[in-house]
Amino acid sequence: MPEGDTIRRMAAAFQERHEGAVIKKSTFRHPRLATASFDGRTILSADARGKHLLVRFDDGRTLHAHMLMQGRVTFRPAYDVPQWRRRFEFTLDSGVVTGIDVPKLDIIKTKDEERILAYLGPDLCGRYDHEKAVERLRSAGPAPLGGALLNQRLIAGFGNIYAVETPFICGITPFQPVDTIPDIHRVVAIGAALIRTNARLGPQRTTGQPRQRMEQWILPSARRRCLICGSRVERYSGKQSPWQRRLGVCPNCQKRRDPAPVDLDRVRSLLHAHPAFDTLDLDAGTLTVPTLEPVEVRGRYRTGPVAE
Ligand SMILES: [Zn+2]
User: Is residue 183 domain-shared with residue 244, that is, in the same domain?
Assistant: First the structure.
């Protein structure tokens, strides 16, 4: 799922392969950009802000893309995908880039990027200010935790995986009001450590288990019973959940409480196998690694269900 970590990896792969490349032919299949062209232009850089991808050109323009839940970018022609789904295609002197199912596409002036994206909260996988992020999330007050984690104006980068998995790891229901969680800074630190580590190393895993189908605790809809206590998982579809995203909750591990502090023993036992655990000071509710520079991505970028 394209969340802040996926987009950061996507931008890094884009930059590594095509920085300085010249576009021989550009095609857009998007209502507003049907006549747009980058033919002959050079790619200066590719970058990410939260869940937004920014590709900058040498004529002062930036391609601004938001993937929502389904968009992806692949570095091949993708002829196996129907043409109308290939929202943009670039043929460069360095290869091919295809934007598949990208729902939001826009061309903006590079100098306007900061102003246009100023509404976003601290960027989890970018220059991330943890204290500011905690302060912003706390301002959500009585809003339910799961919905608040998804609010990009508070913190930019979390998507549904982290909004569902982080409360589960903490032993808190995603319906818990933010202002009843006394150590909300720990919740933010755990989510930030997970997404930054996954942006750096690869798969969107929250369990630390390398095995397929074991990468997340409770979000996969095939998981009928809680991996920790065996209770039947409560499932909500996008239509049933108050913030329109599918949801899994363990009614036993994630009881509504007042107040609802983070269960530290549970976090230690669930996260110890995940490399994010080494970047986390759980007692202080902070990260032990520098976060004020964007995550340095390692390894190969994966495009998800449409294989490269
Ligand atoms: Zn459980």
Answer: yes
pLDDT confidence of residue 306: 42
Identity of residue 298: R
Helices and strands per DSSP (H, E), number in the chain: 7, 12
245 catalytic, yes or no? yes
Question: Long-range CB contacts (< 8 A, 24+ apart) of 34-39?
Answer: 36/107, 38/63, 38/90
Pair of tokens at residue 259: 């107040």
Q: Is residue 125 part of a domain?
A: no
Q: Is residue 33 part of a domain?
A: yes
Q: Is residue 292 part of a domain?
A: no
Q: Evaluate if residue 267 carries a pLDDT over 80.
A: yes
The mean pLDDT value for 34-58 works out to: 97
Residue 234 burial (C-beta neighbours within 10 Å; 0-12, 13-18, 19+):
middle
Catalytic status, residue 51: yes
pLDDT value for 307: 35
Can you tell me the distance from the alpha carbon of 23 to that of 88, in angstroms, rounded to the nearest whole number?
Answer: 12
For residue 251, how far is its CA from the centre of ligand 1 (angstroms)?
Answer: 7
Q: Given the residues 9, 49, 51, 186, select the one marked as catalytic.
A: 51
| Mean predicted confidence (pLDDT) in 113-136 | 98
- The three state secondary structure string of 147-215 is HHHHCCCCCECCCHHHHHHHHHHHCCCCCCEHHHCCCHHHHHHHHHHHHHHHHHHCCCCCCCCCCCCCC
Q: What is the pLDDT of residue 304?
A: 53
Q: Is 29 strand, coil or helix?
A: coil
3-state class percentages of the chain: helix first, strand second, coil last, to nearest 5: 30, 20, 50
Which amino acid, one-letter code, is at 271? L
Distance CA 287, CA 132 (A): 13
